[in-house]
Design goal:
- By secondary structure, the protein is mainly α.
- 64% of the residues lie in helices and 7% in strands.
- The chain has ten helices and three strands.
- The N and C termini lie far apart (39 Å).
- The model has no long low-confidence stretch (mean pLDDT 75).
Length: 152
């Protein structure tokens, strides 16, 4: 195992950062299968089970293009932090995307999911920020710009 990997895992263990540790394990596991042996020596069984569940779910359920996406992994970590839920299926049901602003999120939701037929001329008069605030009764976002449906 590389020194960097060990230092990163030790830092996560010391800070009780189970998700950070799980991501580290996921990133290095295929290169070095001894990662789990190291963790078994340094984690309590509950945290080890969480890490193992995360790694297993990612390996079994995600297509390769998702596994290679840093944004998708970051969104999953945000989902777990917000909802305390580790289920990959729940994450996939809830995740709506990454947006720079609430207005951008609201505009896409309006354009893709509302059934109203509004002409392009009238769309300039829609207050997407107000619409976005209303949407946030059913959605949650985090500082990094990921949006999730509360009803997954």
């Amino acid at each position: 195992m590389y020194d960097y990997e060990v230092k990163e895992m030790i830092s996560c263990v010391a800070n009780d950062d189970v998700m950070g540790l799980a991501l580290t394990v996921y990133e290095y596991y295929e290169e070095n299968p001894f990662v789990m042996e190291y963790l078994e020596e340094n984690l309590d069984s509950s945290a080890l089970q969480q890490v193992a569940s995360f790694v297993e779910a990612f390996q079994e359920n995600c297509p390769d293009e998702v596994l290679d996406s840093d944004d998708y992994r970051d969104a999953y970590v945000s989902f777990v932090e917000l909802f305390g839920e580790y289920s990959l299926e729940s994450f996939q049901d809830s995740y709506r995307g990454h947006y720079s602003t609430l207005k951008e999120f609201a505009q896409e939701q309006f354009e893709n999911y509302e059934t109203w037929d509004v002409s392009e001329r009238l769309q300039n008069y829609i207050d997407y920020e107000a619409y976005g605030r209303d949407l946030m009764h059913d959605f949650t976002s985090c500082e990094s710009g990921f949006y999730f449906c509360n009803h997954y």
